[in-house]
From TrEMBL:
Classification via Pfam families: Lectin_C (PF00059)
PANTHER family membership: MANNOSE, PHOSPHOLIPASE, LECTIN RECEPTOR RELATED
Domain C-type lectin: 32-137
InterPro entries assigned: C-type_lectin-like (IPR001304), C-type_lectin-like/link_sf (IPR016186), C-type_lectin/snaclec_domain (IPR050111), CTDL_fold (IPR016187)
Record protein name field: C-type lectin domain-containing protein
SUPFAM superfamilies: C-type lectin-like (SSF56436)
Length: 166
């Protein structure tokens, strides 16, 4: 909601408070920094969640900086400390990459992670009080409660030296 300034005495005119302000995101999405997020609380496997995102022209959430990490960690708290699936997957060379094309600039792995235990190749965010907000590699076929769509502009270019974070 918004109000337009009253130009007469420096006060506010709340005539338009009943009308929602146009935002940068489609209806049902939350704007955070430069991205648009949509929370889905239904359980889904990684593949099913990614497919649902793609049907909306989106991807599973990518976390490229600490402010995105803080936002998604807040969503995990909202979901009562359950896991949220992320868009980060294990590559053949042992590194991780965002499937939406963004380079990996930031990670928040939990202690001992990633461990690739039992062929884990996808990433979720932990919600437990001890490890809240840290990342864990997990297996794609296991359903998780909650995932986020994210929509944004084209991914930035990879650095010239091609470095990837593990």
């Amino acid at each position: 909601m918004f109000s337009e300034p009253r130009h007469t005495q420096g006060g506010w005119n709340d005539v338009n408070c009943g009308r929602a302000a146009a935002g940068p995101c489609p209806a049902g999405y939350i704007s955070w920094y430069r991205n648009c997020y949509k929370l889905v609380e239904e359980p889904a496997t990684w593949d099913a969640a990614q497919k649902a995102c793609e049907q909306h022209g989106a991807n599973l959430v990518s976390i490229d900086m600490s402010y995105d990490q803080a936002f998604v960690a807040g969503v995990v708290l909202f979901l009562n400390n359950t896991l949220v699936l992320c868009d980060l997957v294990l590559q053949d060379d042992g590194s991780f990459a965002w499937t939406d094309g963004w380079p990996v600039f930031f990670t928040q792995w939990g202690p001992g992670e990633p461990d690739n235990l039992k062929d884990e190749g996808c990433v979720s965010m932990r919600g437990s009080p001890l490890f809240h907000g840290t990342w864990n590699d997990t297996r794609a076929p296991l359903p998780r409660r909650g995932f986020l769509f994210t929509r944004f502009n084209a991914p930035p270019q990879m650095p010239q030296d091609g470095n990837k974070l593990q």
